Fold each of these.
Amino acid sequence: MTAEDLIESVQAELAPRDDDNRLVPLVSSGEAPREVFARLAAEEYHIVRSDWRSCLTLAARAEQPEVRDWFAGLAAGEQLALGKLPALAAEDERYEPQAGCQAYPSYFAWLALNAEPAEVVVGLYANFAAWGRYCAALAEAMRRHYGYDDEACAFLDFFATPPPDGHAQAVAAVQAGLDAGVVTGKVRRYARLVQSYELMFWNNLV
């Protein structure tokens, strides 16, 4: 099986649950309370910092250059994304994060310490398309229903627009892992749990 085939098959397995996100339809229809965006930002201040460190850890652990480069690129993206959050909502040091929202970065941190980096690429990338669609839908509805401007939506816009070479880089990283013989059936477990924890994040904001 090629890297392209593996990614496509894992994405196909995840697809039936992509619509289990309860927040996106509420925002898209304008029914969600405006306060939900401040909560989203408050949670993301914690998530992005954690994910940034997890990406750097995985880059440091990766033995294949393609895998190392992929996680280094993700880490740089997390750094950029963090700088876009204040336009959506200022960080509130008094905010207490919710366990259901922080389950995703906690699992990502576990993967960073325990999983084979090349396998984590599959688990994360297989879920990226849905994550990007969620962000795009929220950004569009925030402008249409809630009056947010481009600067306030920049954090979501950033993730809604994947880099033009992102897919090729992910495929190259996974292929390097396959060629090295380090990619196993665990990738499907990782992808399933990543999706479950991400949906938990969105649904705990409702």
Note: The mean pLDDT is 97.
Amino acid sequence: GRAGGLAARLLGAGSPIAGDGLTVRQLGRVVAWHVPARLFGLLEIAILFALLGLPVTLVNVLFADSLLNAAGFISFPIPQALGVFEGTIVYAFDLLGYPSALAVTFALARRGRLLTISIASVLLHLLSFSKPRGRPRPPADWDAEYESGHWNFLDSTREMGHYEIIAAYVDDLTDRPRVLDVGCGHGRLYRLLQQQQLASYLGIDISTQAIHQAQVLATDGVIFAVRDFETAPPPGPHDVIVFNESIYYAADPTRTFDGYLDYLAESGIMIVSIRHRLKNRRLRTAIHRMQQPAHSTTITNDAGERWHVDVFSARR
């Protein structure tokens, strides 16, 4: 970072480069990823040499790899160094005394790998911009699971962390809020929120059995209701809307997120808690593209389970 800033000043950059440079930890992570990548590159060359019946020695492999790296540096303006890598391989094989036909075979095999990875990367990138689909479930499934006690683990200490983060955000960022808890289940979150000064609380869930279990917590200004949060959302306005591990059960999670922003009060907040899983990553990324969170907290329990809790401000 400092070297880059010095180079910028010497070249007459109009404004200083932002950033504090790499920390030792960040540098260690870069090295931890870069070194294995370089080793796999050497391994690829060695495998291709072996498949072509050429002698596999450390000197030959390093020599070919060094020439390819040099060609990449010199030809960086050319997309994928098209033609440059192939010419470099032919030159390297000539220096090593290997047949030119094998050089072309080597170059085409390596080019095939580069193209395959490039195409796959582009497709994955396009896929990341596609709308993530939700995982809606029929009410009968939820009722059966709540009746069997399947969701009682939500009351355990392993789940406590992300509930407490949500409650802390409500306490710190609002004053006597009107709270809408979307997918409230049997009232686990409200048991933490009831210690705060709330103007009102409305918990909704598609499961009749879950709401039946939560009704013991109902008091004046505290309501639990059976409601499908997609087809019959409470219009508000609400000072706090919470989606605690419930947003991905909507058929169209991003549309649901966007729609509920309209039900926030002018200074309201929406809290979205999402469990850290590969299938949930695209959804969180899509939501962040729609609106950047004002606050974010990631919490991990003793079992290594992780949650991301994001706070979004009302739409201006």
Note: The mean pLDDT is 91.
Amino acid sequence: MQPTIKLIPNRKFIGFSSKMSFATHNPFILWNKFMPRLKEIKNRIGNELYSSEVYPPNFFDAYNPNALFQKWAAVEVSNFNEIPEGIKTLSVQEGLYAIFIYKGTNEGAASFYNQIFWDWLPSSGYDLDARPHFAVMGSNYKKDDPNSEEEIWIPIKSR
């Protein structure tokens, strides 16, 4: 498991968000609400979809499946000048990300994330940074297909 390390500039996203926990995790509600509104977004960058999590400080200090975080269904935009009514904004500050390629269905994702957080991260020379996490669903993403691929972006900073 060897990620690509990339410094990204400030980025802008718009979409829908909701508070949830791992115990109540149901991103499909967000996507079902967001996807019919996609055609309203005029300043979209690329065709990728972004499933994002914004975790509160110290979220990863002790695992609690009932701890709340903010889940997003979003797309990247060039600016916030034209935001369709009811859609929210998410600004992401410049910083380093470790980018992993996940191949498989949703059933295997938890194990993949465990490898990132419990195997790769402790020996990587990096710590988690307090910025949004992303799953980037591009042209190789195919829902419920074992050959589906998505990029997992983990915010990091040097130790």
Note: The helical segments are 27-34, 109-120.
